[in-house]
Amino acid sequence: MLARKGLLPDGFLLTRLAEDATHPNRFRSKSQRARFITKTGSCNVAHKNIREQGRFLQDVFTTMVDLKWQHSLLIFTSAFLCSWMLFAMVWWLLAFAHGDLEPRDTDGIGHVPCVTAIHSFTSAFLFSIEVQVTIGFGGRMVTEECPLAIMVLIIQNILGLIVNAVMLGCVFMKTAQANRRAETLIFSRNAVIAPRNGRPTFMFRVGDLRKSMIISATIQLQVIRRTVTAEGEVIPVCQLDIQVENPLRSNGIFLVSPLIVSHTIERSSPLYEISAQSLATEDLEIVVILEGVVETTGITMQARTSYTPEEILWGRRFVSIMTEEDGRYSVDYSKFGNTVPVRMPALSAKELDHTRGVQEKGPAEGQPQGWGLVRAGRGGYRRGGRTTCDSAAASRPWYAQADKEEDKKGLKKAVKLEEIGREIQEESIEEMSD
């Protein structure tokens, strides 16, 4: 859609199609599943058999804003035409009742009409338009002969202002809707699962095509899946929140350049038991919601997309699209959704924990839980598993072999100290006996 609007180059889609042909996903399902949120962010739910249709008329303004443009323009035009025709009929009836439509001499001495220069319904319709839109050509005007005509003039002016305010307000709200700003927020067509800092991680990329910033941008992930309770009740829509990778435990992001949003798959993750083989058969949908305030207008906006199992690539990661040129950073959007394969086992995170010796039991009851920070390279930290106050092994990754050796050395030192203590204690007992 963005390529059709000219916001992204056609090379982006061509690169994506060539990549899919070169590296097909053998675990991808052939059947097309239904989804709640489309790739463009619209809701893919059809509401049928709604009996209480009158509830929509109780909120007429929102109903008119939600209508399509062709329907809104039809209502906009019909509202003005109907009001003009209605008051044209009123002015014609006033002229007919007062006898202004009867043929008279050219001099017209002794008869003062309610509205001058009204001789037919056509002239009454033109006068109605002049009154409501305040054109005032000067050929027709209300006289002092008919007080009722003055009252009709006041009523038409008031109703004309109301119609103008409502119609123009609807058009303004439709043009300034928050989802219009979301058209320049793009998400990667596919999400990936790849190892990051020794843990399998779910990742996708998001970017902003405009130079104006999104203030207080937050991102939220939810998994929608079909579950069955212990009593056998089938819950077709079960929503589970996913924690975004952030040591501060907040979902805020600074969208100054395209970012790779990640989620570490651990015990608390809904994706903990998903492997490469089971991914294609999973009945789930990962919904991404990006919210923020538009810097130029101050309107709160929301951008949405979703990823189904067919759109999640296993064992791939995104390529780098940012370079530094002439003292500033440059972003190449033609590689926005490109991925490269990485070495990754087809096992789930739970199976990896079993094979690599991570303890299966969780934190003890009654102990507070926190978010551990594990050193990840030079000067960086990543969020590890859930930790307890007195259990350091729960947050220790499976690859920390050096920690086990240090523990063994610590045990040896403790034994030596214990033996020395016993010898000192035995010598003191012998001295006391002497």
UniProtKB/TrEMBL annotation:
PANTHER family: INWARD RECTIFIER POTASSIUM CHANNEL (PTHR11767), KIR6.3 PROTEIN (PTHR11767:SF55). Pfam families: IRK, IRK_C. Belongs to the inward rectifier-type potassium channel (TC 1.A.2.1) family. Residues 37-177 form the Potassium channel inwardly rectifying transmembrane domain. The keyword Phosphoprotein applies. It catalyses: K(+)(in) = K(+)(out). It is a multi-pass membrane protein. Its main location: membrane. It comes from the Eukaryota. One of its GO terms (molecular function) is inward rectifier potassium channel activity. It comes from Clupea harengus. This is Potassium inwardly rectifying channel subfamily J member 11, like. GO terms for cellular component: monoatomic ion channel complex; plasma membrane. The chain crosses the membrane at residues 73-94, 148-172. Residues 185-355 form the Inward rectifier potassium channel C-terminal domain. It is found in: Membrane. One of its GO terms (biological process) is nervous system development. InterPro entries: Ig_E-set (IPR014756), IRK_C (IPR041647), K_chnl_inward-rec_Kir (IPR016449), K_chnl_inward-rec_Kir_cyto (IPR013518), Kir_TM (IPR040445). Keywords: Ion channel, Ion transport, Membrane, Phosphoprotein, Potassium, Potassium transport, Transmembrane, Transmembrane helix, Transport, Voltage-gated channel.
